[in-house]
Amino acid sequence: xxxxxxxxxxxxxxxxxxxxxxxxxxxxxxxxxxxxxxxxxxxxxxxxxxxxxxxxxxxxxxxxxxxxxxxxxxxxxxxxxxxxxxxxxxxxxxxxxxxxxxxxxxxxxxxxxxxxxxxxxxxxxxxxxxxxxxxxxxxxxxxxxxxxxxxxxxxxxxxxxxxxxxxxxxxxxxxxxxxxxxxxxxxxxxxxxxxxxxxxxxxxxxxxxxxxxxxxxxxxxxxxxxxxxxxxxxxxxxxxxxxxxxxxxxxxxxxxxxxxxxxxxxxxxxxxxxxxxxxxxxxxxxxxxxxxxxxxxxxxxxxxxxxxxxxxxxxxxxxxxxxxxx
Length: 326
Ligand code: XMP
Known about the structure:
Layout: H1 16-34, E1 38-42, H2 47-60, E2 64-70, H3 78-89, E3 93-98, H4 100-107, H5 113-134, E4 138-142, H6 147-152, E5 172-174, H7 182-191, H8 196-199, H9 219-239, E6 247-251, E7 260-261, E8 264-265, E9 269-277, E10 285-286, H10 291-304, E11 308-313
Parallel strand pairs: 1-2, 1-4, 2-3, 4-5, 9-11
Antiparallel strand pairs: 6-9, 7-8, 9-10
Helix pairs in contact: 1-2, 1-7, 2-7, 4-5, 9-10
The structure holds xanthosine-5'-monophosphate.
């Protein structure tokens, strides 16, 4: 195992050649560490866990067991992409768990943001633990820890929280990208052949759409949020903003306003667009989205998404607003 300190001499991985060299070294290290034993990985489909999965598949193939927990708060198409890439294309040993009903019933009528986060985090551990116990002879747990996680915290990711697993579920850790910065993880991911839609994706909070479906989550409003968010992402792809804007999403508050549709009163929720730029997420500025793009997004969301009758734009930098609404 490597140490937790990045050597001063370690070159920044910016080219395919350096990425390939890193991959070859890690494959050898992983094989040496793991031998013929099995490794478990919580595969969220985010950049870090996806790159770790691809590295481990290359190193040990089916000795890696990936568990993808769909908490029902994923963006549109995300769980499907995890299955397509890892199960269908990379032939991984993937266990897919649709835990939507469990999460949503625990979250029913819970409106306090921190309580929602705790429920989602705890239930994730419970579901993951249940699955881990069904498997025989797992000795290792792989994690997508990256260097900023080590610099900023105790090195354990909240939503892959090994520290949260019960005492008797202790595994030895495999953390092949723990000395890499995010941009390097992306270069390595590309060299491993992962699709750009997976490797170049924007950050997405562990609790997912749960912190963007504001207040107490209901299935109809969550559905509207997922559809509106998908339209925003599609339109940002079309106009090229997806390549430059750091993070963009829709949030939907738990309130309705009066509107009119087909000459009838139409009460609906507002979809709030947030698009920010930042380097470290500690402060953020607002992207100036062209009005033509905003008009098109507004038109599509209000026409295509059931339950939404207004589209609003959040112009608040951080501080004073945080990036997420909850
Ligand atoms: P805020 O809202 O604090 O967000 O300005 C800063 C960055 O962190 C992301 N974020 C989270 N990521 N679990 C995560 O993994 C969380 O609970 C969480 N909350 C916020 C947010 O999307 C933004 O990129």
